[in-house]
Amino acid sequence: MAEEDADEVPESGAVFTFGKSMFADNFPSKFWFKNNLPLKIACGDEHTALITENGKLFMFGSNNWGQLGLGSKVTINKPTCVKALKCEKVQLVACGRNHTLVCTAQGGVYASGGNSEGQLGLGDCEERSTFQKVTSLDSHGPIKQLDAGSNTSAALTATGKLFMWGDNSEGQIGLGKESHYLWPQEVSVGRPISWVSCGYYHSALVTGDGVLYTFGERDNGKLGLSTEQVTGHRVPQPVKSIQQPVRQVACGGGHTVALTEDSVYTFGLGQFGQLGHGTFIFESHLPRIVKHFQKGRVCQVSCGENHTAVITDGGLLYTFGDGRHGKLGLGEENFTNQFKPTLCPQFLQLDVQAATCGGCHMVVFARPRTEHHAQLTLEDDDLIEDYLERPHEELLGNTADCSTLQRILSARDRRREREISPDQFGVLHMLPVSSLTIPATLPLPKPSHRKVPNGSRDQASEQTATLDNLSDTDSVRGLGETADFLNMTHVMKMDPENKSLTLSPVCKELNQNKEEEKERDEEEQEEVNSSAMSSDKSVDTYAQEVEGKSMSDGEQKSAEIRTHPDAAGVGETVDEAKPVDKKLSLFRRLSSSHPKIPADGDAEATLQQPAPPRIRSGACTVL
Q: Given a cut of 70, is residue 466 above it in pLDDT?
């Protein structure tokens, strides 16, 4: 964040939203409460809950199942107070995938939203759009922590007793073989419990003496258990490989993060970088220390479905994992996956006090720095300024110098670039590639960690999520095979008549030698030139013979006019009766037969590349 932007944040602090939050059209933005201070923040899949210091509950985001508790199922795009709970001061809140739990100062636990697996704890499977009291918890004393997973709920009492309810299809509430529970049930490990976290389909708890237990879905090593322990995954099992006492634990969609006094451990699925171990570790079945933090001590961890956020004792925020929707908070135009903990530069002028990750977004609360936190402690690999945070105009730099392109392109591509007239295309530049982005040989990421829950509304939501996941892979079908993500997949070509640009796919061969390919290109080019330029026949005669041969082979013409994909723009008609057009048609055939630009289909896609707009953060005050 720029220095002048930091001055806009009041002393009481501001709430920052990133990703698909439904606030401010999902653009990175911020807001603050007038004469009030947010104390608790919770994020669900696409909805958010905040508790202020005067005990008021504010909700916004997706509301398809009534998870906002406002009496309707209308999506809310700005923080709205839940008036039904105004008479009781709200102290705790937790958001699941499509439901919400709150606890008031009087000790009452309330639930609202989706209830397909009984996650509301009301004894049935009917969804609610207003908060209903979970009466079965009234006799168990004060509640000190609430948490919620995909279709599960948890409540931890001040005496160290843990109660869980909802979906147990994978053993994620630790109650054995039963598929689900409609009422809160106690989960015991023989000692008091101090912390609990619910992921999408697995859960974890920490005992008072710092022992970490995990249970639920066992795929991809997200439980961090040894081979002999995995068979008992439906009940809590101790994670023996972490020798230090665990202070906190956070569960995501397919990974787990454990915090000790001096270290951060991650394990499970990491194909998006959510483990923070770099570009060569996409899965870890046993806990591994995140080596990035050598100076600052991590004091808070949070997991979304496929991303992670950590806060150090110096008030710095680090994020890593899936960067879709910009939920990592690394710049308005940075949606890149991060495989190592990456410092959020815009919070250097602020003291981050809370960061919560949802399924598709992240919400951060930060205040202006005081003298206590004025001195920053940065790690050796921290980048203070991210080039992807700057606008495209600054990234392009001086367009009069094309040396950057010449250094990056291969010899074959440089030869092709020289054959294209600079007067037609201008000068091209390539953006720098971050060392934290996806590696060149990284395989395509696996689909997002989603399961189809019960209920027609869940199925409709799941279909939408599936379409979002397939959009990236569908867009690259038919472009040829390549072993390098950074390789060229298309070449540009300009029509000399109307100066229109077309984009032609380049088919790749995995085991083809570049030198042999270069020699074959030159030999075939000489053969084409020899056959076209050294012939005693005129171009018109040669064209007529070609047309005659085509007719004798069974080709059919519809009248004298047909549509030609290479002529005067895609879809326009060309009169073949004119000699000039026959010459153009001949040379286009010779050009299209060249192996450097193989044809792919009957038409080429017209290249259109508008300049991306610059998104500016907004700010508003909630009264």
A: no
